[in-house]
Design brief:
InterPro entries: GmhA/DiaA, SIS_dom, SIS_dom_sf, SIS_GmhA/DiaA_subfam. By secondary structure, the chain is an alpha/beta fold. The protein is 56% helix and 11% strand.
């Protein structure tokens, strides 16, 4: 896709949420990091706490299936599905959708509670980054303050593992800002107001990625 299409999505975001105009360049840089990751076959790891935990899961939901486009599987893959199982394959081919690989580190309670009980709960996300993360992947840390300890541990593990780091924060960006390759710091101070701007920002990122990777 022409990058003008993705930039138009960003312009539309700013039209609806004028407060984010000041961070337009950072949002686009975050998009470029994610685009490059997926183009090279990498994946996105996401983590946050509380409302940011829910945002992590939300982002995965928009990336791993159709967001505003249907994203049908390729004709070649559809044929392979039908060859794999003549009975089940046609329905799979009709229903499955293209996706961009993303994992919310927030959704593994057996692992995280075991690590918390046996080792250190503040490093549960870092443990997952250590195991899942490969060079070329991206870690997205969501924290309104930029100072959540478990997110900082995960970011440090991401750096050691060769991942790019995107911070999605508020206030002054906190410690995560200096640890990130790009830090998207929405211009608000109160937690709920920061979270209110996080959602349209990551929706725009998901739309831009879908526009780039999928025709329909």
């Amino acid at each position: 896709m022409d990058s003008r299409d993705e930039k138009q999505i960003l312009k539309d975001l700013i039209r609806r949420y004028q407060a984010v105009e000041a961070i337009e360049n950072d949002i686009f840089k975050a998009y470029e990091i994610l685009r490059s990751c997926f183009e090279q076959g990498g994946k996105l790891l996401i983590a946050g706490n509380g409302g940011s935990c829910a945002d992590s899961e939300h982002i995965v939901g928009e990336l791993m299936k159709g967001f505003v486009k249907k994203r049908p599987v390729s004709p070649e893959y559809a044929k392979r599905l039908e060859a794999a199982d003549p009975e089940l394959g046609p329905k799979l081919a009709a229903c499955l959708q293209g996706g961009l690989p993303a994992i919310a580190l927030t959704g593994h309670p057996a692992l995280t509670t075991a690590f918390s009980n046996d080792v250190d709960g503040s490093m549960g996300y870092a443990q997952q980054v250590c195991v899942y993360g490969k060079e070329g992947d991206v870690f997205l840390g969501i924290t309104t303050s930029g100072n959540s300890e478990n997110i900082l541990y995960a970011a440090a593990a991401a750096r050691a593992s060769g991942l790019k780091i995107i911070g999605l924060t508020g206030r002054d960006g906190g410690k995560l800002k200096r640890m990130s390759d790009v830090s998207v710091v929405v211009p608000e101070q109160e937690t709920y107001k920061i979270q209110e701007l996080h959602l349209p920002v990551y929706h725009a990122l998901c739309l831009m990625l879908e526009e780039h990777f999928y025709e329909v």
